[in-house]
Design a protein that fits this description.
Layout (H helix, E strand, L loop, with lengths): L2 H11 L12 H7 L3 H20 L4 H16 L2 H15 L3 H8 L6 H22 L4 H19 L24 H20 L5 H26 L4 H23 L1
Function: Joins adenosylcobinamide-GDP and alpha-ribazole to generate adenosylcobalamin (Ado-cobalamin). Also synthesizes adenosylcobalamin 5'-phosphate from adenosylcobinamide-GDP and alpha-ribazole 5'-phosphate.
Pathway: Cofactor biosynthesis; adenosylcobalamin biosynthesis; adenosylcobalamin from cob(II)yrinate a,c-diamide: step 7/7
Cofactor: Mg(2+)
Length: about 260
Amino acid sequence: MNKGAFLLAVVFLTRLPVPIKDKVDDSQLNQASGYFSLVGLLVGLLLAFIYLLLQSILTAEVAVILTLATGIFVTGAFHEDGFADVWDGFGGGWSVEQKLDIMKDSRLGTYGVAALCLLLLLKYQLLVSLAEHGYWVCIALICGHTLSRAMATSIIALLPYVQQDTQSKVKPVVQSLSNHARVYLYGCALAVLVVFWCFDYFSIWHCAALIVSLTVVRRLCVTWFNQQLGGYTGDCLGAAQQISEVVIYMVCLAIWQ
């Protein structure tokens, strides 16, 4: 494990105060992409712990809201911002250039606000429904944050990066995925499923349902991004992560209903 690349992944995906002394370049960021699912696992574990702590003294509904708020605080709404920008750009732009200009605008439009509100409401309702099944909501949080980041990052290998205006201030983004990074990325995601399978939380069919669902979501996202932009941007990866996270909660709820 490359400690420096892992710490860079933590800094890139969260707002945790991790010191990075050396100057970061694109190659280092590409190397750090292999640890994105591991960072997602740590975020999921943190949120599961927060939920367990809160639900012991508060109602499940309040605990879910505060858990979601903690996730947004820890990640700096990094992926949610990309999700909203994608809806603004794809909904409000006609040409690729217009869509990219809208997506890099720091202001939110009607499409982005509406999509973000619906996303948060859906997450809330799904997690509250999962809370009725006891501690299963914690498993869903861990799977949701780990597997969704693996799925979103894997899109990098399937589409070209769409270069925005070089004179504009754009977000840094991973632009390649090495074989070494893929091993760590997928390995962490699969390890989570194996652990839950070994402890009889998931059957082999439940694991298969999650993998198949995410594979379908990835294909739909790749097709969508390709039709709209001819590739992907950092905002697209954030949108893919949010969409897949919600799908994971849906599959988990279907499993435990």
